[in-house]
Structures are given as structure tokens and as C-alpha cells.
Amino acid sequence: MLSTSTPDVSTVRSYLLSLQANLCAALEQVDGTAKFRTDDWTRPEGGGGRTRILADGPVFEKAGVGFSHVRGTTLPPSATAHRPELAGQPWEALGVSLVIHPRNPHVPTSHANVRFFTTTPKPETPNPQTAPQAAWWFGGGFDLTPYYGYEEDCIHWHRTARDAVAPLGETLYPRFKKTCDDYFFLKHRAEPRGIGGLFFDDYAEQTFDHSFALQRAVGDAFLPAYLPIVERRKATPFTDAERQWQLYRRGRYVEFNLVWDRGTHFGLQSGGRTESILMSLPPLVRWDYDHRPAPGTPESRLHEIFLRPRDWASLSDAQLSPLHSPLPPP
Amino acid sequence: MLSTSTPDVSTVRSYLLSLQANLCAALEQVDGTAKFRTDDWTRPEGGGGRTRILADGPVFEKAGVGFSHVRGTTLPPSATAHRPELAGQPWEALGVSLVIHPRNPHVPTSHANVRFFTTTPKPETPNPQTAPQAAWWFGGGFDLTPYYGYEEDCIHWHRTARDAVAPLGETLYPRFKKTCDDYFFLKHRAEPRGIGGLFFDDYAEQTFDHSFALQRAVGDAFLPAYLPIVERRKATPFTDAERQWQLYRRGRYVEFNLVWDRGTHFGLQSGGRTESILMSLPPLVRWDYDHRPAPGTPESRLHEIFLRPRDWASLSDAQLSPLHSPLPPP
After folding, report:
1. Helix ranges, chain B (H)
2. Which residues lie across from B94 on neighbouring strands?
3. What is the tens place of the pLDDT at every residue in A258-274?
4. How far is A258 from chain B (nearest CA, A)?
5. A131: Cα separation from own chain's centroid
6. How many Å apart are CA B20 and CA B16, to the nearest integer?
7. What is the largest CA-CA distance in chain B?
8. Which residues are CB-contacts of B88 (< 8 A; sequence separation ≥ 6)?
9. Which active-site residues of B does the annotation give?
10. Partners of residue A259 in chain B, C-beta under 8 Å
11. Residues B86-128: pLDDT tens digits?
12. Residue B262: is it exposed, middle or buried by C-beta count within 10 angstroms (0-12/13-18/19+)?
């Protein structure tokens, strides 16, 4: 759905830059030691970005938080296959992307993204009555990829996601959760990437203010969704076998991003900044031929219980698996 | 180019199975310790394969040698975009693929592949005069991906490739070398995967016997091209920093195979056996954000001297870089 209400690009930009700064500050605080480095870059065709990377921290083995704001004078037809009326218009795309690879296998990997796309009418259009309409939309979401499943973490994650978007519409959470489950799926393994979360795209409903409020609700909910899980698990003792399982499962992350992720593919094939696009890849990964965890192990339970779509937000404590302790007191 | 001479599928199959057995036996002998495991598999739509994997050897950290022979009743239009007359015909595809990831960073990673594709006329065609023509072609090649460059290794590799195909045509080596350089190229990094070798596809020239002889020449040349390099480098002492460079460079291998390799993409998206397709992925890989080797180091020399197309086969000893020792005595 397209909306013709006037987008305020500079306000979106300000929000995204402050979101990036807040995310990095909070992650540095939780890590306690490592700091983000900052790379500002420009794009020959217009615009640029700020890529921030934290590496080798005690809590976060790698974290990347990227901001980009890129422009073009002529929207390529491939970007507008189902919107031919936008082809050839000037466009802008802004976004913040985050991927966190923790060191401890009991802390899940996490990904978040919020983005905004707008086209603007050509200023030199001779007849304003026939000028192309401006069109804009938001996209984004966040999803969680555990190596070891903890039901209380999944419940917290999904309840936070649900509560974040509830003020903007009761139907949004189930709709965005399903889109997330559908999108983060490795077709070649018939396997979800993780336990999902929220995912939306082409969102331009009601007004610009409403749609922008949705983007902010999602962006602002990431830290409350993720950090309590990090704090709860970061000191969990782990064995070398658990570490190797984490490295093995990280291979699935690479497979999804390089084989299926539309943003990664589009970025790499269209001349985006490779190092900023591939900041999502894990710091260390292993592949083992035809590895299958033994039945009854926590590794096997990841597949059986967690890597399948489930209505985590509605699960009550009483429905938790007896193998798991109830939620800790707040 | 299509040829109508009658293909002999069973002879190709016998050659490929014996090639797989020979490759595995020779690699086990060089490794000295690890053995190949064997997985036979079938494909619901027809045919199957034999995947053989060696893991954790002292010389070879991972080696995969796969044979497959798959069939279909109806060639999909996507496989015959520039040969519409073949759409809907029964088809068979046979091949052997090999990827070797050595443990020592001074031993290059290597890949080889030989394959054969054929379509057969529908037996129930009412009028034999208008039956679709049989069409078949061969493909294959081998390429080398060093972590540390040794000019004498590159010369040996390319001379062996050149000499292998020379009896079948003087123009074949330069033609297949260029195709290899063009194909194994990471467009998103403007960087070759390695030093190349041979690559050919859709090869159906002169007669079936000639084309099959070319396939055998390439398949049989792999061990003489690769094993002397393994023997020469496998005991080279290496530091942890060199090991980390190897893991980092292996990331490029993953990026090529998952983002650009047509066979991998087609296999994963068309429901091929995932574990057999992804046996090519390295056992352990790292990604570091925006890593750049210091100027003047061997790591930097890899980019400057080796990761660019070069006529290695014609290079004389006198043209070798003074940093390198001449070829060792035979």
C-alpha cells in the first residue's frame, strides 16, 4: 500500500542516527570492555553511511551496527517491478541494521533492522498536475537465533515484541510474526533460522506519523527485548563441545544470509559496500558434513522444540516444558 | 554447440566412478591417516549418488569427493533457456566434484569437477523423423586457491593443465584458462577466487569420443597437478597468524560458493542433497571486518601477485620474482 502523505526524511534520519548511537552505547555497557570502532563512508552514486563494529569483547565476539542513507537519481526498474510508475524517479533509502554474535553459546545471536524508502517527484516536471506521486514505505523488525533454547527467553522476546507494536494495532504482532517466520527460513534445509520475532516491509498505512511511530516502536523495543536475555545467560559456564555447536550452528546464519537474504544479495550484486553488508557474518564458523546431534541432547532439543514456529508470546508458565525452570523473579 | 553422435552414458558413468575411487585412494595415501567415509543416497525424482568425505586428517582437514548420477523425465525450461527445443525431454546428468581443504596454510585449497549432461529422445514419439535430437555436453575443470603464493606451484599447476589438454587441441588451454579466470571471480570484491586453472562447459565438439577424451584428460590430470604441490608444502612450519589468515581467506571461498556459484545455487534452490552440495564449504572459517594485510607481507603479496590473471604456464624460471627460490630439482 502506498501513502501520499508527505514524508519527513530528516526526522527519520535523526531518529536512525540516535538509535544507532543508543544501541552502540548500550551494547558497550553490557560488554564492559570492548568499544565500537566507527567507519564513515560515502557512496559514489550519492549518500553514504556510518558502520560501527565491536570485536573481541568478553560478552560480544562481534557486533555490527550500521547506518546508511543512500540516494539515487533514477530508481532502477528492478526495484520497482510491481510499481512501474516509480521507475526513473529519484529515491532515498535510510536504515539501521544490527547483528550481534555473542561469545557464550547460551546467549542467542540477534538481528534487527529498521529502514525507510522514499521516492520524490522530479522537480523539473513541466506540469505539476501530472507529476509522479511521492511514495514511501517503512520496513524492519528483529529476530533471535539461539544455539541453546530457553523457553523463558523466547517468551520474553516475543512478549516484548508483541507489546511494542500493540499500541499501533492489535493485528500487527501476529501479522509481523508470521512474516518473520516465513522470511527467516532456510529452504534448502527446511529449517527456520531461529525463533523469529517481527518482520515487516512495504509498510505505509494510515499516515506517515503512524508508520514512523511503528518504526520507532520496533527500533526502541530491541534493547528491552534482547539485553535481559544477554544478562541472564552471559555468565553461563559452557564446555568446548557447546562452543563447537555454536560455531556449527553459525554456519546456518552464513547460509541464510548469503543464499536467501534479499538485502544481502541485492547489496552485493548492486555494488554496495561489501564490508558493511557482510558485517553480519559471524567471526568464526565451522561446517561439519552431515552433523546430527544425538537424540535427547540440548542440541537436539533446539531443533525439536525451538526451530519451529510457535506462539511464544501466549505461552503461560504452566505450559513450559518440565525440563525448564520457570521464569526467574523480576 | 550440440552434437548428435550417440553418447555412451554407461562408459561415462564407469569412468566417473573409477575416477572417484582413484581420487579418494590417492588422497588417503597422501594424508596417511584419515579415511573417507561413504554415503550412498538416492534422489526421489530419479538417480542418486555417492558422497565421500574425509575429515580431520593430518594433511587434509576436509576433503569431499562426490559422484552423482541423476535423471529426470522432463527437462525444466529454466535449464534450457537457450535451447528451447530440449524442454520437456528426459535428461541425465552425471558428475564427479572434489573440494580439498588442507590443514597447512601453505598448501592451497583445490577444486575439480567433471560432468556430463544428456537428453534422450522420447521413445514414444510417433514419427521418428521428427523426434527431438539427442543433445549432450561435457563440462568441468579444476582450479587452485592458495593462501600463500608460490610461483613455482602456480607454474606447475598451469603447465600440467596446459599439457593435459594440448593433445586435444592447441587452443583449448588458453580458452579454458580464460573461462576459469572469468568464472571464479568474486564480483562483490573485484577479486579472483584463486589462480585459476581450467574451466569448460557445454562442450560437445567434433565427436563424442573426442569430447569424452577431453573430460578424461582433465579428470586424470588433477592428481598430477595437485599432489606434487601438497607434497612440497605439507610439512612447511606455520604460525598461528598464518593459520588465522587461512581461516580468513576461506571466507572468500564461502562467499563465492554461496553467492556466485551457479551449481551451488541451482542445487540448493532445486532441492538437491544439501549435505552433498555444501561439502565444498571449509571446516573452519573466520570473518574479520575490513581486514587488510600490511604492505610488503606474504599476505599482501597474495593479492598483489597471485590474485590476478597471469600466464603462469609460459613463465620461465628467469621471470620468477627474486623473493622466490627457483623450481626445485625434479
Report:
1. 9-31, 151-165, 172-183, 208-233, 240-255, 262-269, 274-277, 298-301
2. B69, B116
3. 999 988 987 887 778 99
4. 6
5. 35
6. 6
7. 71
8. B74, B75
9. 111
10. 258-259, 265, 268
11. 777 888 999 999 999 999 999 999 999 999 999 875 555 555 5
12. exposed
Looking at the complex, does the CB of residue A213 fall below 8 Å from at least one CB of chain B? Answer: no
Q: Element (H or E) spanning A230, and its range? A: helix A208-233
Choose among B188, B189, B254: nearest Cβ to A254.
B254
Residue A189 and residue B274: Cβ atoms within 8 Å?
Answer: yes
How many residues does the structure list for chain B? 330
Q: Does A305 touch chain B (CB under 8 A)?
A: no
What pLDDT is recorded for position B268? 86
* Nearest CB to B258 within list A187, A258, A269: A258
pLDDT single digits (tens) B162-178 = 999 999 999 999 999 99
Strand ranges inside A148-231, DSSP E = 185-186, 191-192, 196-203
Pairing of strands A37-42, B191-192: unpaired
Coil, strand, or helix at residue A242?
helix
- Binned at pLDDT 50, 70 and 90, residue B153 comes out as very high
Query: Tens digit of pLDDT for each residue in A25-48?
Result: 999 999 999 999 999 999 988 899
Structural contact between residues A76 and A93, judged by C-beta atoms closer than 8 angstroms: no
A39 interfaces chain B, CB cutoff of 8 Å: yes
Nearest Cβ partner of B258 from A187, A255, A274? A255
Long-range contacts of B41-50, Cβ-Cβ distance < 8 Å, separation of 24 or more: B41/B273, B41/B276, B43/B70, B43/B273, B45/B70, B45/B71, B45/B72, B46/B70, B46/B71, B46/B72, B46/B73, B47/B71, B47/B92, B49/B273, B49/B276, B50/B17, B50/B20
Is residue A130 scored above 90 in pLDDT?
A: no
Q: Which residues contact B56 (CB under 8 A, 6 or more apart)?
A: B34, B62
Residue B222, burial from CB neighbour count under 10 angstroms (0-12, 13-18, 19+): buried
The dihedral sign for the CA sequence B151, B152, B155, B157:
negative
- Which of A39, A188, A265 is closest, CB to CB, to B290? A39
Q: How many angstroms separate the CA of residue B141 from the nearest CA in chain A?
A: 24
Each residue of B39-72: pLDDT tens digit?
999 998 889 999 999 999 999 999 999 999 998 8
Query: For residues A192 and A184, is the Cβ–Cβ distance under 8 A?
Result: yes
Is A279 in Cβ contact with B284 (below 8 Å)? Answer: no
Cell 555436453 sits at which residue? B137
Q: pLDDT by residue (tens digit) across A236-252?
A: 999 999 999 999 999 99
Position A16 pLDDT exceeds 70 = yes
pTM of the model: 0.92
**For residue A297, which phi and psi values (nearest 5 degrees)?**
-90, 165
Task: Say which amino acid occupies B237.
Answer: P
Window B:238-257, CB contacts with A under 8 Å: 247, 251, 254-255
